[in-house]
Each structure stands twice: as C-alpha cells, then as structure tokens.
Write a structure and sequence with these properties.
single chain; 308 residues; alpha/beta; Rossmann fold; four-stranded parallel beta sheet; globular; binds iron/sulfur cluster
C-alpha cells in the first residue's frame, strides 16, 4: 500500500497530473487527491487546473464533464467502465422522444437535468444542476414554463417540496440512495437518541421524512461544521463520505445507514477505481475521455448553469 501510494505520487509529479476525487471514492484515493469534492465543486475545480493532465477519480459522467469544461486538457478515468445507475436510467434517445411528445402536446417546458447524466442528455437540456445549486437554478426557470426534471425522481420530489414548483419527473434513481433500509434507520435512531440524522436528497421520501437535515455532500459538511464537539451523526449517503467527515471533523461519531440488501451499501461504480488502476492510468496515459459531438452543446449548458 505504501509502495503504490509513493509510486502514484511520483508518477503524478513526473506526468504533471492533477488528481480530482469524488467524496464517494475510497479514503485511500481521496487521501492522494489534489482536490476532493462533490460533482459541482469538482466541475468547478477542473476549470482551474493548470497541469495538462486531469485524472478524475469518480464515475464516467464526472470525467466527461471535466473534459467538456476543459477541452484542451487530457482527462483520464482510471476505469472507463465506472458508470452510474442514475445516468443509465435516462438514455438521450429516450429523453429526446419524450421531449418531442411533450412539444407535440403543446406543453411549454424547460428541461432541468441533474449532473448525473450523460453528455448526450446534457446537450438536450436547458439547465444542468447539482444537489448544491438546484434550488437556485429552479428559481431561474420562468414561472410560465413547466419543468421537466431528469433523471432522479427522488431529488426531483425533494426539489418540488422545497421550491413549491410542480415538475414532470423522469423515473430514474440512484441504486445506492434508493435502497437505504428504513427499518435499520429507525432502529439506529432508537439506539442513538441524541444523534442528528442527515440524508442526501437522492434518498426516497421515507428516508428523508425521518431525517433532521437533507442536503448534498457539501451541505452535509457545512452542517457538521456547526455541531458541538462529540456529536453523534447518522448518515444516509454513500458510506465513503464518512471518510471525509471523519477526516475533517474527527471529534464526532458517525453511523452509516445500511442498505436493504447490503450492509455497507457502497457504490459499485465508484468502487471500480482502485489504487492499482490509478497508478496504471498515470503510467500509461489511458483510459482517456475523448471529445464527442454532443460535447459542444453540453458545454454551453454546463457553462451557463455551473460557472455563471
Ligand atoms: Fe451513480 Fe448513485 Fe453511484 Fe453516485 S452513488 S455514481 S448516483 S450510482
């Protein structure tokens, strides 16, 4: 472990590469990264990288977003098969057909798309949002327009609740956040009666309803920063997030909510990136994210939504 870590640091320097890592990566990868964050923070960080190579430790749509915002940089993803169930739930051709059907029916709408989507879907959108900026963007959609929100129905429902805007919701979900066990959460709340329960808005309504705080990963960290020492926190999001929480706020005690089918409930797509693949990727300059035709239109939408 120490050898491979030293090797990655040597290669990173030699290749003039910057490593960006999502909070859902294993702690050993987050520890090696130059920058860690949620999707919004990483997309913004990618635009400030000076090195010619970005190694994106996250999933495919995130690396794709980094490439779209930085066409001149080489963007590498340690495992090209690191996908996302949420992005997969909304194929671009299916979305295009649905939008056409709405138009034929005379509906006036704007498409607001969660960043967990492919470039093809972003290219069909008016706005791209993350859990960090979604409310702000929704307020920018003219009141006379309907909102088609894709692909996460749980995040969409949550945004309906907090903004009061009704939306047409695409029927997608994240395989990790969708299966937190309500029974286990309730048992944990009984076991730790003073604990604060925090949940990601990708969680279904039954988990959100039993949470004291709902927010994306950056919002969770900001909330934890306000807590008194030695607080107990029950966390309903991808469990690698606890590494970042413990790293930044080691004085609290954290309890991850298990999944219905799997106690640890880690994202299998994020888990495809390993230290070995990260080292190989730096050594061989591959796998790389290449420019594709849908990136031009996706770039306009991303810049308008995330960088202005
Ligand atoms: Fe996709 Fe969910 Fe994994 Fe995030 S945690 S990459 S939304 S499957």
């Amino acid at each position: 472990m120490r050898e491979i870590t030293a090797e990655i640091q040597r290669l990173k320097k030699e290749r003039k590469a910057t490593i960006l890592a999502h909070y859902y990566q294993e702690g050993e990868i987050q520890e090696l990264a130059d920058f860690t964050g949620d999707s919004l923070a990483l997309a913004r960080a990618a635009t400030k990288v000076e090195n010619p190579i970005i190694v994106f430790c996250g999933v495919h749509f995130m690396a794709e977003t980094a490439k779209i915002l930085n066409p001149e940089k080489k963007v590498l993803l340690p495992d090209l098969l690191a996908g996302c169930s949420l992005a997969d739930s909304c194929p671009a051709d299916k979305l295009a057909r649905y939008q056409e059907m709405l138009r034929i029916n005379g509906r006036k709408f704007q498409t607001v798309t969660y960043i967990n989507s492919t470039a093809g879907v972003k290219a069909l959108s008016d706005w791209v949002v993350t859990s960090g900026n979604a409310m702000e963007i929704i307020h920018r959609v003219p009141k006379e327009m309907e909102i088609l929100f894709v692909p996460d129905r749980h995040l969409g429902q949550y945004l309906e609740e907090v903004t009061g805007r009704k939306m047409i919701l695409w029927d997608g979900a994240c395989m990790v956040h969708e299966i937190f066990s309500l029974g286990d959460l309730l048992a944990m709340k009984k076991q730790h009666p003073g604990a604060l329960t925090i949940a990601h808005p990708e969680c279904p309504a039954n988990i959100r309803a039993h949470s004291d705080f709902v927010g994306g990963t950056e919002a969770m960290l900001r909330k934890i920063a306000t807590l008194e020492k030695d607080s107990e926190i029950i966390v309903a999001t991808e469990p690698n997030m606890l590494w970042q929480m413990e790293h930044k706020f080691p004085r609290h005690r954290y309890h991850p909510v298990p999944g219905i089918t799997c106690a640890c409930n880690k994202c299998p797509h994020m888990g495809r990136n390993t230290l070995e693949k990260l080292a190989d990727c730096l050594e061989n300059d591959t796998p790389e994210i290449f420019w594709s035709p849908s990136f031009d239109r996706a770039r306009e939408v991303l810049q308008r939504s995330l960088l202005n």
